[in-house]
Amino acid sequence: MAQYTKHPVSAPPTAPERESTGHLMLRGYVILVLFVTFAHSAVYNLLGRDGAAVTLAVFTLATLGIGIPMLARNRPQPFRWRRLPWTALGYTTLALVSVAWSQWRGPTLITWILLAAVTVNALFIAHVLTWHEIVRALSSAFKWILGLSLAIELWVSLVLHGPLLPNFAELPEGKPDPQWYWVRDNLFDGGRLQGIVGNANLLAMISLFALITFGVLFAARARWSTTLALWMLLAAYFLFRTSSATALACAAAAVVVLVVALLMRRARTPGARTRIYVVAIGGTAVAALAVWLLRAPLLALLGRSADLTGRSDRIWAKVLTRAGEHPIFGNGFSSPWIPEDPAFYEWITDHGITVFHAHNMWLDVLLQLGAVGVVLMAVAYATLLWRSWFFAIDRPRWDLDAERPFSPLTLLPSLFTVVLLVQGFSESTPIMLWGWMLVVLLSFKLKSVPLVGVGERDLVFERGARQRRVP
């Protein structure tokens, strides 16, 4: 049986062509964008509010400066306008239009610029990078965040010998509330770590995303697997030391989804898949009911109260009351809330600090954009979950070959989406900053390139492998 390769018999195989310097610089720039987005609070604590705003503006202008010429030249490929995540863009448009009826027009305009900047950067990344490059860029950004988090925790404990305030401000006399600290000096006393991002819950979520990213790369047999394993250990350590109930719940949900997805990959018949669906959905419903009934003792083990640390009484009740004033189109977009604005100043406080989101993404959307916004957000997440699930469990097909191997990389979108949905029950991060970036990025990429291995630049990631055709 004849075999055909890309090389004639007389010419020996040559090493694959190296990436161009320009593309390497592009990937490096994307890593910087991802780092600044995921570690936005670190930039805020380092440079202050104005410095963080200037940083985001500079990166957005740079993205436009790089992306517009690439679109004009159809580089690296024609832009797939019809594949844009139209529901997510519809939500973004509604957020801007809401300035017409907003009860807080200043915060609406300010935070919409932030939303638009994140959306533009997400679309840019999805367009210029392949699936494998996106995963590697996420991995690099997470490594920088985790590595710098360990470094600053060590510096505070071993050199500074005390907590650190944002902008390296001097500690005032007395003992300020620990909520004000950037780093609390808890590395060796067993307390919760905050890392460079200055928030234990945020560091926990980034550590979970990092674990997922490193895990799929490790399963894909990426180079430097030993180093990846060490990074996974560091991410797991931070996840443990942050003691975030939300992150642990998200991790449990991700494990369930991963197990079900792997079982679905092994199922050979529709009937087998149906049985897995029935068992998985039924088991999840029973487990969720058990967790809800036992929430008080379970949360007590983590040092939390049954009302989710005051969310239901102090935050959600007030948000629902104000949302009821304008239930259809909401009170006006503002994600996050602007604490200095009179509409939010000392409206809801925690440890003397004005809260800047509803700690529930659905209540936040209901407050800001009403039932219309909730519907748009629900459709955006539902379509993302649908596409990412079948992206994970369906064997890659673009011709008559039905036996191509699954790629571990295809598991990442569904795991990320489930984590965001679970986190959205107690946090509003999935609708702003890096949460919204992941929604737009994954939605656009799944619609435009629904298979890993299709296209000139989206080849299946297998180290040293070359495709062959056997007629």
Commentary on this structure:
With 471 residues, the chain is an all-alpha fold. The protein is built from 14 helices and 2 strands, in the order αααααααααααββααα. Helix 3 runs antiparallel to helix 12. Residues 1-5, 7-11 and 455-471 have low confidence and may be disordered.
SSE layout and pairings?
Blueprint: H1 21-38, H2 40-72, H3 86-97, H4 105-128, H5 131-160, H6 200-219, H7 225-242, H8 245-266, H9 270-293, H10 295-301, H11 311-323, E1 349-350, E2 353-354, H12 361-393, H13 412-423, H14 433-448
Antiparallel strand pairs: 1-2
Helix pairs in contact: 1-2, 1-4, 1-5, 2-4, 3-4, 3-12, 4-14, 5-6, 6-7, 6-8, 6-13, 8-9, 8-13, 11-12, 12-13, 12-14, 13-14
Question: Biggest sheet, strands in spatial order?
Answer: 1-2
Class from helix and strand fractions = mainly alpha
Average pLDDT figure: 86
Question: Shape from CA axes?
Answer: globular
Identify the notable features of this structure and list them briefly.
471 residues; two-stranded antiparallel sheet; disordered C terminus
